[in-house]
Amino acid sequence: MTYAKIIKQLKKLPGIIYGLVIIIAFFGVTADYFLTFMNMMNILKQASVLIVVSLGMTLAILLGKIDMSVGSTMSLVGVVTGICLHKGISIPLAICIGMAVGSIIGFINGYLIGYRKFDYWIVTFSNMGIAQSLALVITNGATIPGFDSSFRFLGDGQIYGVPVGILIAMAIALAIIYLSYNTKFGSNIYAVGGNEQVARYSGIDTSKVIFKTYILSSLLAGFAGILLVSKVNSANPIAGSGYEFDAIAATLIGGTPFDGGRGGVLGTIIGACIIATLRNGLNMLGLTPPIQFTLVGFIIILIIIFDVLNEKYKAKKGGAANEA
Amino acid sequence: MSDQIILQLKGISKQFPGVKALDNVSLDVRKGEVHVLLGENGAGKSTLMKILSGVYKKDSGKIFLDGKEVEINSVNDAENLGIGIIHQEFNLLPHRDIAQNIFLGKEPTKRGPLGVKVLDKATMYSKCNELLKTVGIDLDSRILVKDLGIAQKQMVEIAKALSLANLKILIMDEPTATLTKGEIDKLFSIIRKYKSMGISIIYISHRMEEIQVIGDRVTVLRDGKYIGTVPVKETPPSELIRMMVGREITNLYKRDYNEPGPEALKVCNLSSRGKFKDVNFSVRRGEIVGFYGLVGAGRTEVAKAIFGEDKYDAGEILINGKKVKHHMPSQAVQNKMGLLPEDRRDEGLITKMLLKQNVVQASLRKVFPKGILNNKVESQIATKYITKLNIATPDENVVVASLSGGNQQKVVLAKWLLTDSEVLIFDEPTRGIDVGAKAEIYELMNDLAKSGKAIMMISSDLPEVIGLSDRIYVMYQGKIVAEFSHENASQERIVNFAIGRGDTL
Ligand SMILES: Nc1ncnc2c1ncn2[C@@H]1O[C@H](COP(=O)(O)OP(=O)(O)OP(=O)(O)O)[C@@H](O)[C@H]1O
Ligand SMILES: [Mg+2]
Is residue B502 part of a domain? Predict the structure, then answer.
């Protein structure tokens, strides 16, 4: 049942949630205005974009691979949607067009990696560059400013004081959680990431699983890009760059290691919240982005050390040789 | 068992780059029989079974099931036809639980929210529990596979193959290689049960004694070719061996016992919490010292601690009378120690690298003192060992992953022979190795001992332990519980100690 699975995952989470609490407490003490309602909502808005893109990254990492193209896919989808909106195309259609363009990136990733067995680093790195330069070319490098309030409602609006963006992100997150724990597709992602040969020998069409996962990842990245445009009220052709780093960080912090086949999206959501909080708090303390990157890196290492120690401890406790 | 033929393979051929793995092979399987497939390492047994189970595609030939020709193009095709397989190598996902592994790729589903197909976990876990009961494993289906012992993993593999709804043919590719006596008995009773239900079993094993116990008919393959099919009852093992290797093997265990030299390896009061305790033993030059025990008795753990792979809490290790402490295997190698691990695929070889690269792996410093590798030298050395150990391979430039199990083991052996180690630890040296190769490996071990090497041999193959060792230590639950010299070693007493019953004579 879903329930047991979620509970089980939740039981594994306290470590990270603890981290989140500590970070919030730290900034609450050190940064004025950090613990205000306004700022909390800000963090949630920021987190909502990161959560959506990180979900896709987590699926790629669960697959035992990675998707380096998510950041520039965000940028590309953002500017395409922005251009469409400025051309007077309706909001739903503009979003669809943007997402369609984004899914092409996923299609190429998925096809080359899944069916042609190309190296996933090379493919997603190349697409990272291709999507980025496309975004720059079609905008001539310029930012597309100012959108309708109805579009801005997505990323910036509120319902009873709760940001719409975070509600959307939560809905998507729930869907992805459900997908990964309760569907064959989700189970197949874990199988391919755990051991591709085992998956194949069990009759799973591994190529198709890889293909679908990369498309899903780019769709999620594309939607995150649209949320971002809506939130900041401008479509910048490099707005998404750096998000791949944060998405990987959120995944790792959330307990999904690079080797694939274990971990899950639930942890990633908290990981994304930690990063959003961290960035916001460090900004308030007046620390520049380069230093923020250092600190995020540092925290990942801390969490991994904690994780390794924890595993070792567990191994020691139950270490007796087992014989049936 | 009836004479009705349920499965027929006709003229199957399969070519791999540089190897004709199967050359016009045919096989008839009767309903409800245990059909043993026998052949040396690399004979093509696994390849034939992978074709039957949809993992590989055949180049030519026909497959008939129940008299009708069938096309098997994928694993799903085979499963739909009722053909299940337990592969030679583990096929489990360590981080998923037992039920997820057993139902991998064929999870039960139901209609979920919005009419989408979702996993029916309730059904999956209850079906799994049932299945585990039939197989006779007392385990919770939610336990992660990584937390299981080797034998338990194998039982899960068996349950996985039995989970097919309309099972007709069950293929078992060396299912007992990792099982102990008791578990093998359990497996055999499962086989008999399924047999009585009319299910046919194709059984691959290198253990000749098993064939007598469980087999009905035997088909022998050699070098990818069909040699013949004979009934077990009317064929003496020596005849089977002759069919299989093309020559007579009279004395499998050949051992020249000499007066051993000084102590090369001495272990005093070695302890590691939860793994083993107060282990004391020694191995002298020219000796083969056998370690017998159940899987999980702590033998491998002791070996790994000596080799510097695992830490230990207390005790001393002496090599040639000098105290050593290995923090990592590289130090052990420098002290002229070698370890042939039980899990050759994960620990003994870099399977993605070439045969020749694997052979020189542990001797780079010796072979290339200047630190610059030389392709030609690598090839020369590897070729020498291919001949010496009779490794079945097209040449030295193949990736090790493509070799058959037994030949992979020979590559590990070559690697350590090249290092000139003085103390060698063999952990299950002949697991999954055919009789012909076994005889060759035993002869090599005998030669190594004669040339003054000290050999510690961990093995779950009792005839091998008794037939080869100067002395035998028996381990039980992390402790050495008995020591025998080869003169007074008795199969029965050793087993009694190994299962914790002590000397009940
Ligand atoms: N995927 C592959 N690519 C290339 N060659 C292969 C591949 N699989 C098997 N071979 C080769 O085909 C031959 C038959 O191998 P196979 O694994 O069927 O032997 P086997 O009879 O099962 O041996 P063992 O008893 O050692 O398991 C061997 O020479 C092996 O090297
Ligand atoms: Mg085989």
Answer: yes
Residue of A181, A201, A262 to mutate, testing the B interface (most B Cβ within 10 Å of its Cβ): A201
Task: For residues B23 and B481, give the distance between their C-alpha atoms in angstroms, rounded to a whole number.
Answer: 50
**Owning domain of residue B98:** 91-158
- Residue A110 pairs in a beta bridge with none
The residues spanned by each domain of chain A are 49-244+255-265
Amino acid symbol at B394? P
Considering the domain architecture, whether residues B31 and B95 belong to the same structural domain is answered as no
> Do B231 and B128 lie in a common domain?
no
Look at residue B237 and tell me if it is in a domain: yes
Residue nearest to atom 3 of ligand 1 (CA): B402
- Give the chain B residue nearest A196 (alpha carbons): B93
Q: Are residues B277 and B331 in the same domain?
A: yes
What the block records as the tokens of A91 is: 């909001």
- What does each of the 505 residues of chain B score in pLDDT, given as a tens digit? 568 999 999 999 999 987 899 999 999 999 999 999 999 888 999 999 999 999 999 999 999 999 999 999 999 999 999 999 999 888 999 999 999 999 999 999 999 888 888 999 999 999 999 999 888 888 899 999 998 877 788 889 989 998 888 999 999 999 988 787 778 888 899 899 999 999 999 999 988 889 999 999 999 999 899 999 999 999 998 899 889 887 777 778 888 888 999 999 999 999 999 889 999 999 999 999 999 988 778 999 999 999 998 889 999 999 999 999 888 888 998 899 999 988 777 778 888 889 999 999 888 888 888 888 888 999 999 999 999 888 888 999 999 988 887 788 889 989 988 988 899 999 998 887 888 888 888 988 999 999 999 999 999 888 899 999 999 999 999 999 999 999 988 888 898 898 888 776 5
The answer to whether residues B332 and B426 belong to one domain is yes
Report the number of distinct structural domains present in chain B: 4
The number of CA neighbours under 13 Å toward the Cβ of B383 is 7
Supply the CATH number for residue B13's domain.
3.40.50.300
Please identify among residues 113-172 of chain B the ones whose CB lies closer than 8 Å to any CB of chain A.
116-119, 121-122, 137-138, 147-149, 151-152, 155
Task: List the one residue out of A21, A38, A43, A32 whose CA is nearest residue A285.
Answer: A32
Contact list, B121 vs chain A (CB under 8 Å)? 1-2, 182
Q: Which residues contact A51 (CB under 8 A, 6 or more apart)?
A: A169, A172, A173, A250, A268, A269, A272, A273
Pocket-forming residues, ligand 1, beta carbon under 6 Å: B 16, 19, 21, 39, 41-47, 88, 392, 402-406, 434
Residues B425, B503 within the same domain:
yes
Structure token pair of residue B369? 């003192």
Q: Are residues B367 and B415 in the same domain?
A: yes
pTM assigned to the model: 0.82
End-to-end CA distance of chain B: 41
| B149 shares a domain with B29 | no
**Same structural domain, B369 and B472:** no
Pair B357, B385: CB distance under 8 Å: no
Taking CA atoms only, the protein residue closest to ligand 1 atom 24 is: B41
User: What CA–CA distance (Å, rounded) separates A87 from A82?
Assistant: 9
Which atom in ligand 1 lies closest to the alpha carbon of residue B44?
18
